Structure formats: structure tokens, C-alpha cells
Amino acid sequence: MHTAIVTGATRGIGHAIAKALLESGSRVMITGRSQDGVNEALAQLGAFAKDGTHLAGLAVDVRDRASVEVMVAETVARFGSLNTLINNAGVGVFSEVEKTTDEDWHSVIDTNLTGVFYCSRAAIPVIRAAGGGWIINIASLAGRNYFANGGAYCASKAGLVAFTESMMLEVRNDDIRVSVVMPGSVATEFMGPSGHQAADSWKLTSDDIAQTVADLLKHSSRSLPSKVEIRPAKTR
Ligand SMILES: NC(=O)c1ccc[n+]([C@@H]2O[C@H](COP(=O)([O-])OP(=O)(O)OC[C@H]3O[C@@H](n4cnc5c(N)ncnc54)[C@H](OP(=O)(O)O)[C@@H]3O)[C@@H](O)[C@H]2O)c1
After folding, report:
1. Does some domain include residue 236?
2. Structural domains counted in the chain
3. Distance between CA atoms of 154 and 144, rounded to whole angstroms?
4. I want to staple 57 with a disulfide (CB 3.0 to 4.6 A). Which of 38, 140, 143, 172 is the partner?
5. 8 Å CB contact between 113 and 138
6. Is 153 a catalytic residue?
7. Exactly one of 79, 117, 118, 153 is catalytic; which is it?
């Protein structure tokens, strides 16, 4: 039975990935920072789970190493193994460098980069013990196409692309496949609720990214698409 952790699955892309994994019959552990947020997502996602044993949730801040280690241990305790880690949790703060506070900088780097390191380090031995699996990191095209007022975010995602590729080379011979998915604009609450659904209609949807992840997981064991760039087909 395929088992997965999806970090940051209370809404947006992580929520859609959790839904897609549940629909394919996987057992899924979802996380977010608050218990209320996780409970709400559990209630929404329950309908897609095969039965009550397929879905669980924990309040885990990926910046907190100890909580991340509990997340991995709890997943194994509940589901018996861990095959796939989806590092999706992320935040963005967009401001000029001279106006970026220490708190903003650390929030972005600690979540988007250090959090992925904590989760991956905790998961690798457990995925290896399960006979192999996947780690899929949700980065961004901002990790390649840099822009003004995006210093912390672009740096976190460029760092994540580099981290992911290095980790991929390290563990590929242990049957652990590591991929980075780099989406362009996705219509989520990431930049705050736009309130203009029509204005967002050109953007990717969370389900588009979930489909990308689901497709990766279907690749034959010979094949490792290690970097996927996905962007809206049109710009407006
Ligand atoms: N939307 C885009 O245009 C876009 C484009 C490219 C890449 N991405 C990337 O895609 C990922 C998901 O973004 P999204 O658009 O779905 O954003 P979102 O709607 O704001 O969702 C972010 C998720 O991350 C969780 N989260 C944030 N900080 C966390 C932390 N410290 N520990 C655990 N969970 C945390 C949030 O849960 P709680 O608030 O409940 O903690 C939420 O579930 C991010 O890595 C983002 O950088 C987004």
C-alpha cells in the first residue's frame, strides 16, 4: 500500500496533491501549522479517502525539526511505512531588500528551504527501509526566473532546486527518486485571496500541479524525471 506525507496540505496545491493521492488509493498524512486548519482539511479530504484508515493529519510546522521528526515517526506508526514525501509547504514575502525584515527573511528561508531539509533528512532512512520511493519538492519558476522584490523567495526556491538535485544524485541508487516541480503562477491563496476569479482564469490550477505529481509517481522504476517546469499555457 503506497503511503505519503504531503506538507502544507490544508489548502492550495498541497490540498489538491493530497486529494489526487487519496483518489489513487494511497494512504496520506497531511500537515499544516494549526490543528484547526488540519482538522478542516481532514473533513474536506475524507470524502476522497478509500476508508478511514487512509487519511490522517498532524499540526506540524516544517521549521520545527522536532515536530518534523514526530511527523515521520507518526506516519510510520499509523500506516506501517512511508514511500513518498511531498515537500509542498511554502510561504512568500515580497518586498524590497532594504524593507525586508529579519523575520520575513527567516520565515521564507526557514520554511521553503530549511523545512524541506528537515523533512527530507527525517524521511530518507524510512523511505529507504520501505524499499525505496519518492521525494517530490514543490519549488517554483521563481527559482530560475528571478524578479525584483522577490529576494528571499527567489533565493529560497533557487536554493531548493540546488538542494533537490544534489539529494537526487545522492539517493538515486537506493531506489529513492527525487524530483523538483517548478510551477509558474497557480491560482491559490498564496498571494492572498485575489477575489477576482475571472482575472485568475489564465493561471494554472492546484489540480494541474497535483496531476503533474500523480503522473511522476506513475513513471516506471527505470525513469526519473528529476526536474519539471510547468507554466500556464498563456500569459493572460
Ligand atoms: N501559488 C503559486 O503561484 C505558486 C507558484 C509556484 C510555486 N508555489 C509553491 O507551491 C507551494 C504551495 O503553495 P500554494 O500556492 O498552495 O500556497 P497556499 O495556498 O498559501 O498554501 C500553503 C500551504 O503551506 C502551509 N504552510 C505554510 N507554512 C508552513 C509551515 N511553516 N509548516 C507547515 N505548513 C506550512 C499552509 O498551511 P497552514 O497555513 O495551515 O500552516 C498551506 O497549507 C509553496 O511551496 C509555493 O511556494 C506556488
Report:
1. no
2. 1
3. 8
4. 38
5. no
6. yes
7. 153
Residue of 190, 194, 203, 206 to mutate, ligand 1, most atoms within 8 A of C-beta: 190
Residue 235 lies in a domain: no
Are the beta carbons of 186 and 204 closer than 8 angstroms?
yes
| Interval between CA 190 and ligand 1 midpoint (Å) | 6
**Which domain, by its residues, includes 35?**
3-230
133 belongs to a structural domain? yes
12 Cα: distance to centroid of ligand 1 (angstroms): 7
Helix (H) or strand (E) holding 153: helix 151-171
Residues contacting ligand 1 via CB (< 6 Å): 7-14, 31-34, 37, 60-63, 88-91, 111, 115, 138, 140, 183, 185-186, 188-190
- Cα(106) to centroid(ligand 1), Å: 16
Q: pLDDT by residue (tens digit) across 67-83?
A: 999 999 999 999 999 99
Rounded CA gap, 57 and 41, in Å?
Answer: 9
Asked whether residue 88 is domain-assigned, the answer is yes
**pLDDT, tens digit (0-9, with 9 covering 90-100), for 155-201:** 999 999 999 999 999 999 999 999 999 999 999 999 876 556 668 89
In angstroms, how far is CA 163 from the centroid of its own chain? 14
pTM of this prediction?
A: 0.98
